[in-house]
Amino acid sequence: MQPLSASMDRTFQMRLLPLFTLILFSLALVFSQHSVASTSNELNNNNQTQLRQLAQLAEYVGVDYDAAIEKGEIINKDEYQEMLEFSALIVEKLADNTQLNQQNPQLYREALALQTSIKNKQDIRLVRDISGKLRSALLTLMPESSLPKHLASIAATKKLFQTNCATCHGVEGRGNGVLAENLSPEPTDFTDVARAENRSILGLFDAISNGLDDTAMPAFTQLKEQERWSLAFYVSSLAFQKSDQGSTGHILPKVTLQEWVNHSPSQLTQSLKSQGVTTADIAALRAKPEALFDHQPSPLTIARNLLTSAKKAFDNGDYSQAKTLAVSAYLDGFELIENSLDAHDQNLRKSIEVNLMQLRHLFSNIQNASQVQATFDTSMRQLAEAQTLLTESNLSNTTLFSASLVILLREGLEALLVVIALMTVLIRTNRRDALKYLHLGWVVALIAGGATWVTAQTLIEISGASREMMEGFGSLFAALMLFYVGVWMHSKTHAAHWQAYINKKINSQLKAGTLWGIALLSFVAVYREIFETILFYQSLLTQSESGQFNYFIGGILSGIAILALTTWGLLKYSIKLPLAKFFSTTTYLLLILSFILMGKAITALQEAAVVPINNLPINIEMDWVGIGSTWEGISAQLAVLILFIFYMIRSKKKVA
Question: Of 14, 375, 406, 478, which is most buried by a Cβ count within 10 Å?
Fold first, then answer.
């Protein structure tokens, strides 16, 4: 057979260009669900801007008045002077705004009443009542705020606070920063509970965004909108962090996020009494507001909830249901954040994985009750530790880039090698008529992978067990097929055998069943990887900040570049290999892939509770080559090696 020309080499390389284009297209389905946090939305007219400023001033007066007046006497002249100036400014701005007065004539009368009560040094309860009514009236005229979809991580927000706020407000937000003693009025003490109970998050956000006139508080317009919201939620939480709240925030009030940011804790407590919501519940949510943004529970929340349900089923004697729920706790919850947790604490990830696997066996018998309780408690504690680790810290740029790159390489390299190996075999055996079937297989797989992910997000819920069974049986099929092709390749390494094959087959066409078998193998090899890759990327994005999106994309593009370079190298140098050497090299490549996929098939089926788990006495886990620490996985992979060695010995005897 003549070697292929350079132009034909380029032709075949060009055939794979759509592969990388479609990978980008499929991964773009993930990005559409995760828009980068928007920059600050400027109010489009003067009235809207003025409404926010007036509402901010009204709240500020109601919050700080007790620092100026006590029992009708001035206790702080500077604070009192500030109250007079702010109330006068409210009256002045409303007097000059004819349009606002026409919309609500009561606004100006309430502003005058507020100014008069301050001049007369009235009781704090009266002043707060008037300022509250004025602010509520202003809020009804304001459009809804542009609220964040999620907050920055606690670690990122604390860093923002230390960089932008600590010099005045202090490291702990107590108003005792290094510049505080030279400022008048003094910076706010965010740990003051009485003050925090009367301060809204919107008021804090506006103060951060616009600053406060006649004070040292500047406008932090250089910060992104999400960063300012994150700071507002953070400083609003400081007063409630160490208080004895008597609640874990389990009661989530039926209140919109807009209502939550618009009103102070005292106002929310009063309006939500009918729901059974207490001051402690509001305080707990102020301290940890993540639940307000948790429209879809995090994977770790899902894992904890399912594990709790599994324990209840076990206690009720329903051992089958307990095991099913324990399997789901791992597959539908914990598995989706394994990559993210590995970046923070790999040992914790491995320990949780071992305990969750152990629980499914312990749930099968009431005699394991004491061991179940101990392992369950340990697992729940570790899951809470993982939640804290992932919530209170964000991935570094380098870690995010590396994780994004490694996921694509780990999931994509196997599929790429299978497709390339099959492609070069078809080329070198002069079976170019079958290439279209090969390409059809991986193209359909990419489209189907993206479509399956979209379907799982919008129409139906695909369980983790179903996903693992699909991956397990797909890997098993691919491993057996690659083993078969590898054995066939080995049989053609001898020139005499190859010449006989050519003479017999050169003018015949591949049968339809074989052609569609090639398409099916190509489809399975790619489909099993693309869907899981998208799921892992979706989970990884939840652990990143909006400003890190470029690093995430950079990892993906770098992965695609490496895969493209690998494709080019394999095509270029495999074509130059002598025929016997080519078949020999490809044989061992296919054997390695079959070995890896066999191990991954058993692992996936074990995770789906289809294959039992019996651990080896030592831990030899190596994910990259599919080796796990179970007898079942090692036995299946050894079977691949033993069968291939047996075949080679047998074929050598025949040649001899």
Answer: 478
Compute how many other C-beta atoms are within 10 angstroms of the C-beta atom of residue 425: 22
Q: Which helix (H) or strand (E) holds 475?
A: helix 464-491
HSE of 472, CA atoms in CB hemisphere, 13 A: 18
**Which CATH number is correct for 154-293, 1.10.10, 1.10.3470, 3.40.50, 1.10.760?**
1.10.760
- The length of the chain is 656
DSSP string, 607-642: HTTSS---B-SS---BGGGTB-SBHHHHHHHHHHHH
Helix ranges restricted to H, 363-434 = 369-391, 397-428
Q: In whole angstroms, give the CA distance from residue 272 to residue 641.
A: 67
Element (H, E) at 26: helix 17-31
pTM of the model: 0.49
The answer to whether the CB of 371 falls within 8 A of the CB of 362 is: yes
Domain ranges of the chain: 46-141, 154-293, 299-391, 397-591
Buried/exposed code over 38-65 (b: 16+ C-beta within 10 A; e: otherwise) = eeeeeeeeeeeebbbbbbbbbbbbbbbb
pLDDT digits (tens, 9 = 90+) for 48-96: 777 888 888 888 888 889 888 988 899 988 889 989 988 999 998 888 8
pLDDT tens, residue by residue, 131-164? 888 888 888 887 777 788 778 778 788 889 999 9
Closest CA to 281 of 243, 229, 238: 243
Contact between 596 and 476 (Cβ < 8 Å): no
Q: Is the domain covering 299-391 a CATH 1.20.120 domain?
A: yes
> 107 CB contacts (<8 Å, ≥6 apart)?
94, 100, 101, 134, 137, 138
